Amino acid sequence: MTHARAERTALCDLLDRVGPDAPTLCEGWTAYDLAAHLVLRERRLDAAGGIAIKPLAGYTASVQRGLKAKHPFPELVSMVRKPGGLYGLLSFLDAQVNTLEMFVHHEDVRRAQPEWEPRALPADLERLMWKRVSMGAKLMLRKAPVGVVLRHDGQVALAGPSEGPKVEVRGPASELILFCFGRQKHARVDYVGDDDAVARLRNAAIGL
């Protein structure tokens, strides 16, 4: 089983356990909203553009609401369990695109629940995540208000403005992924830098 499928399965198992009204780290979204988002992302390509393109966001939101109105929560979760669209046809594409997506959304549900703790992840998954961090940091942190030095196991990736104050962010690759995806307040990372710069970074709207 690929890491993408493993995270997908674990996420769906958790969604089934916590139920539709459980909170998530996605602002304003319940578990029901998140399940609808994931179905839309894979099975309604006509509406997926609004996930990243603001002028299209209204249509995307209306389709997401429509999915909730049409499908009970358990049905949406069942649809998420099996990769849809191109991801269902091309397993390599699912592994390439959805490993981080499913990991981050799995943690969105886990870390919104009480008494959560970070998971011990396979070493090869951590290596993959650092590769994605080091390659994608500049894009993911393009909105960072200060320079960012990501440090993991002696390796470094730079992002954010080249001038001005810099903050070093240290942690496991999986926690740095969550940081880069805008989950700063729930990522178990250490910050080193000026207090004001750290506060600005922790509260910034970053991520894809």
Automatic annotation (TrEMBL):
<dbReference type="InterPro" id="IPR017517">
    <property type="entry name" value="Maleyloyr_isom"/>
</dbReference>
<dbReference type="InterPro" id="IPR017519">
    <property type="entry name" value="CHP03085"/>
</dbReference>
<feature type="domain" description="Mycothiol-dependent maleylpyruvate isomerase metal-binding">
    <location>
        <begin position="3"/>
        <end position="133"/>
    </location>
</feature>
<dbReference type="GO" id="GO:0046872">
    <property type="term" value="F:metal ion binding"/>
</dbReference>
<dbReference type="InterPro" id="IPR034660">
    <property type="entry name" value="DinB/YfiT-like"/>
</dbReference>
<dbReference type="Pfam" id="PF11716">
    <property type="entry name" value="MDMPI_N"/>
</dbReference>
<protein>
    <submittedName>
        <fullName>Uncharacterized protein (TIGR03085 family)</fullName>
    </submittedName>
</protein>
<dbReference type="InterPro" id="IPR024344">
    <property type="entry name" value="MDMPI_metal-binding"/>
</dbReference>
